[in-house]
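User: Can you recover a sequence for this backbone? Please restate the input before giving your answer.

Assistant: Of course. Working from this structure:
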């Protein structure tokens, strides 16, 4: 089966760092699509700098998605619609934690539909145990010396703690 006949979805985000909530959405998307591209992107509207470089975020995602044969990791600095066109993706997969996420994601879905009508946006609601979870929460807790083992995959816990502990010193 070639990429032209496969159902390809793109799961974009900053993933700074990747959390159990992100991994849950990626795993669920991998069951719905033939190929899922986890796309590390830069969002200029997110305040502050990132804790991990794009390359580091990609490596962390690769560590936690290695068990998923149909998932790859990539990065793209430009418009998501351009990336969708280039890869032939038919869907954008976004996770929703709360109603507050929906307004922004709905606006983005409408804009992406205008820019690339061939792709649909698919919203997956988060699992209840991850509703409060975000990369920002992980960074705040870790920065104050808290235990983040319930929030991030164990395969990358040490990597995240090592970076965030250095930042908080």
């Amino acid at each position: 089966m070639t990429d032209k006949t496969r159902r390809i979805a793109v799961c974009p985000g900053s993933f700074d760092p990747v959390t159990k909530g992100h991994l849950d959405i990626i795993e669920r998307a991998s069951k719905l699509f033939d190929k899922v591209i986890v796309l590390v992107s830069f969002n200029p509207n997110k305040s502050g700098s990132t804790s991990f470089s794009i390359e580091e975020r990609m490596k962390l995602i690769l560590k936690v998605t290695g068990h998923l044969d149909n998932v790859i990791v990539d990065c793209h600095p430009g418009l998501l619609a351009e990336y969708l066109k280039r890869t032939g993706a038919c869907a954008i997969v976004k996770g929703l934690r709360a109603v507050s996420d929906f307004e922004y994601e709905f606006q983005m879905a409408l804009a992406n539909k205008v820019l690339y009508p061939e792709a649909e946006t698919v919203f997956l609601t988060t699992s209840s145990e991850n509703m409060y979870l975000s990369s920002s929460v992980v960074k705040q807790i870790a920065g104050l010396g808290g235990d983040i083992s319930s929030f991030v995959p164990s395969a990358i816990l040490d990597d995240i703690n090592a970076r965030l502990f250095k930042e908080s010193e």
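That completes the design. The CA atoms of residues 14 and 44 lie 10 Å apart.
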